[in-house]
């Protein structure tokens, strides 16, 4: 394999730009992964790996994962410790990095199972929240996650927070939340907009035995009024304490649990 030792190498600069810029990720159709676990998950889940970068230390310490990663990569490079430090977005790097091809994930009505359970994130900004919801959604077993606006689903922090779930869960994106909610309604699905408003229906009292879509909104502003009006019901999580609301990922976890419990 070719060895890269210069931090100003064009391939390294390109990888950094993909890591740091949502615009570059959109334009190139690539996303950035770091670490033995995430890069290994990409390899075993048949994510298309464009370029893999590994240090000599990583090849010794994570030989099984590195072998799998390099076998699936279009291009593989051995990098120096200095280059690994430039690529790394973490405090303590494992020396394994991948540029992967993004998957076609635009949401269309035909992809939705009318009997399925879906969590819908509208304008969620924090990548850690996005990743945490993805991890919970896969763990509890929803049919998919829909993301409209907010954080880029291929943000490196979101991918790390998902612990690999983002590479396995069905994730769709859409540009028009209201239009898509209306398509769910036309399919006869139950569409719910979550809100901290105590006047909304308690989520624990909703019959969710058929297809359900539940919307979680922006961390500061919640679900937009337009999307809330398009949904069939407003729902809330009953709270006994003095806190006025829950963190977006915590609220989503409870809503997902309730969807699947019933």
**CATH fold-level assignment of the largest domain:** Alpha/beta knot
Strand runs, count: 12
Biggest beta-sheet profile: 7 strands, parallel
Q: Separation of termini?
A: 53 Å
| Share of β-strand residues | 15-25%
Radius of gyration: 20 Å
Mean pLDDT across every amino acid position: 93
Q: Assign an overall shape.
A: elongated
In what order do the strands lie side by side in the largest sheet? 8-7-6-11-9-12-10
Structural class assignment: alpha/beta
How many domains?
A: 2
CATH architecture of the largest domain: 3-Layer(aba) Sandwich
Helix content: 25-40%
Low-confidence stretches: none
Q: Under the CATH scheme, which class of the largest domain?
A: Alpha Beta
* Number of helical segments with 4 or more residues: 11
SSE string: EHHEHEHHEHEEHEHEHEEEHEH
SSE arrangement:
Elements: E1 2-4, H1 10-20, H2 22-28, E2 30-34, H3 36-44, E3 49-55, H4 56-61, H5 63-72, E4 73-79, H6 81-87, E5 96-101, E6 117-122, H7 127-140, E7 144-148, H8 156-161, E8 171-174, H9 177-186, E9 190-194, E10 201-202, E11 212-216, H10 225-230, E12 233-236, H11 248-261
Parallel strand pairs: 1-4, 3-4, 6-7, 6-11, 7-8, 9-11, 9-12, 10-12
Antiparallel strand pairs: 2-5, 3-5
Structure description:
With 262 residues, the chain is of the alpha/beta class. It is 38% helix and 23% strand. The strands form 2 sheets. A 7-stranded parallel sheet has the order 8-7-6-11-9-12-10, sandwiched between helices. Helix 7 links the parallel strand 6 and strand 7 (144-148). Helix 1 (10-20) crosses helix 2, helix 3 (36-44) packs across helix 5 and helix 7 packs parallel to helix 11 (248-261). The model has no long low-confidence stretch (mean pLDDT 93).
